[in-house]
Amino acid sequence: MAKNQQISRFWGVPSFLILIVINIVILIFSTNMMLLTPKSMGMSVLSLFQQGIHGTMTWFTDTVNSINELKNLKNQYDLTLQKLNEFQEMNRNFEEIIQENILLREQLGFSKSLDLDHIPAKIIGKDPVNLFSSFIIDKGSMDGITKDMPVTAYQNGVLGLVGKVIQTGFNSSQVIPIYNSTNFVASRFQKSRFEGLVSGQGDTENHLIMNYVKKTALNQINVDDMVITSGMQSLYPGGIYIGKVESITSKEYNTSLEIEITPTIDFGQLEFVFILTGLEEQMK
C-alpha cells in the first residue's frame, strides 16, 4: 500500500520538472559535462529555461502572424471577388449594348426603306394591371402621334401589324395590340384574296381568330397561308402582314369558317415599333 502511494506521488510530479531533471542527467553524463563546475551547470539549467521561453514566444509570434496572413488573404479574396462581379456586370452590359446596337441598325435600315410615312418608337412600359392588354411607347403628341394611328414592327424580314394607338400624351402613347379582344382588323388571304375580320382573344398564349370567311373558300385556303390587312377600312393600310393560318374549322351551324392565325410579330421579343402616319392623305 505504501509503495503504491509512493508511485502515485511520483506520477503527480509536474511533467516539466521531470523533463528538466532528465535534461540535467543527460548533461551530467555527457563527455563534456565531466569538466563542468556547479556554476556552469546552473548556467546550463538557466539556458534550458530560456530556450523553452524563447520557443514558446516564437510559436506564439508565428501563430499571430499566421492569423494576420489569413485575414489579409481573406480581404484580398473578397476584393478580388468584388472586382470579378463588377467585371461580369460590365461584360453583361457590354453584350446588351452590342445586341441593342445590332437591333437598332436593323430597324434603322428598314426605316429608310419603308415607303409609308412613319415614326419609329421604343416600347417603354406595359399596363401594370394587365401586362398584355396594352403597352406604352416613347413617342407622343409632341412627335406627331395621334389616336388610332396603326402600329407596325419589323421582324424576320417583314413588316407586321402590331396594333393601334388608343391614347396619346405629350411624349408617350398607349397602344393596344392586335391580340386584344377589342381590336378588329379587316383582313384577307394574300393568295386566295378571300376577306374576313381578325380579332384577338385577350393574350399572347392564344391565336388570333379570323371570322366571316365564306365557306366557299374552304378548298382554296390552306394551313400556313398568309393573312394581310385588306385596306378596306381607313385605319389600316392594305398589305401589312397579320399572320399565317394555323388551323381551319368549318362548323355545320355556321355560315362562315373560323380560322386560327399565328401572328407575324412575336410580341415576346417586341422592342421597337413604327407608327404609320399621314395615311388619310396617302389613301386619297
From TrEMBL:
Source superkingdom: Bacteria
GO cellular component: plasma membrane
A Pfam family reported for this protein in Swiss-Prot or TrEMBL: MreC
Transmembrane segments: 16-36
Domain Rod shape-determining protein MreC beta-barrel core: start-end pairs: 123-276
Record's function text: Involved in formation and maintenance of cell shape.
Family membership: Belongs to the MreC family.
Protein name: Cell shape-determining protein MreC
The species this protein was found in: Oceanispirochaeta crateris
Encoding gene (name): mreC
